[in-house]
Structure formats: C-alpha cells, structure tokens
Amino acid sequence: xxxxxxxxxxxxxxxxxxxxLGKARGRKPFEDFIQTLENFGLPRFLAGAPLAATLILAExxxxxxxxxxxxxxxxxxxxxxxxxxxxxxxxxxxxxKVACRCFGASNAPVSxxxxxxxxxxxxxxxxxxxxxxxxxxxxxVGMGVIAGTVGALAGLFVTRWDDLVFLFQGPQSLAALSRxxxx
Length: 183
Hints:
By secondary structure, this protein is mainly α.
C-alpha cells in the first residue's frame, strides 16, 4: 500500500460516510434529500424514497469498500461523483436555486463552488484509482500515519466546504436569495 492510495482512500471514505450519515440520520434530513432530488429536476416518480435510499446506500458502500481497500470503492465513488456533478451542473445551467443537501442539513444553494469541490473529489478518486494497483507493497508506519492523517483531515475539510465558502464569500442562504428574487 502506498501513501497516496491510503490518503485518497481515507479522504473519500470519510466524505462518503459523512454524506450518507448526514442524509440518513433522521426522517427530516432524508425527506429534505428527497425534496432536493426533485428540485434538481428529476421526474417525481424517479426522485422518491427508493432513489434517495439507493444513493445513500451507494455512498455508504463506497465508503466501506474504500476502507477495506477494494478497487470497487473507487469505481462506485467515481460513478456517484460523476452523477452528482452532472446534477449540480444541470441545476446551475438552469439557474435554479436549490439547496445542496450533499452532507445533510446545509442550506447553501448549489453554486460553482460545489462544482469545484466535486472536481477536486473526482481528481482525488482518479489519483487513488490509478495508484491502487501499485499499492500492493508495504508502507512504513510513520508514512502511513502521516498519509492517513492528511487524508482524514482532507476528508473532513471537504465535508465542511459550504462553511469554507461562507468564510470567503459571506452568507448567501436560500431565504436571502428568495427575498432578492421577489424584490
């Protein structure tokens, strides 16, 4: 196992685990996620609880597969990220203001910042997948601790993306955007 692969796997596993937990931690976050799928423009018959549950289970499965070091985790992560990124791009292209419920309760509207985040995650997924076949060798304990710590912190950093954007851009909630539209 090489350090790059370990860091990528831990980062992505944390991102997908927290994304799944954020959406499935209760009835309200789950229903909000279903509403978000509808707001993304998916047909009502498709955007219901079965799709929401499937996506959450896929996120959880990807996290688990990445943690145990299976290449299928990268493939599932790549498919999920590609789909989510296309959905975000679709919302932005239509100019619709939709809350991003990527990690549960956020009210931050979908923006280009989310595309940047997903682009970063897609790049990390590609780097991890490419390094995966080369990850058959051993890894020194010190290097593993450093790579694991960096990967875990990067994963936590990405899950707080909306907060970081808020720090740099200031507040822009859906309620404020709605008031602006009515004026």
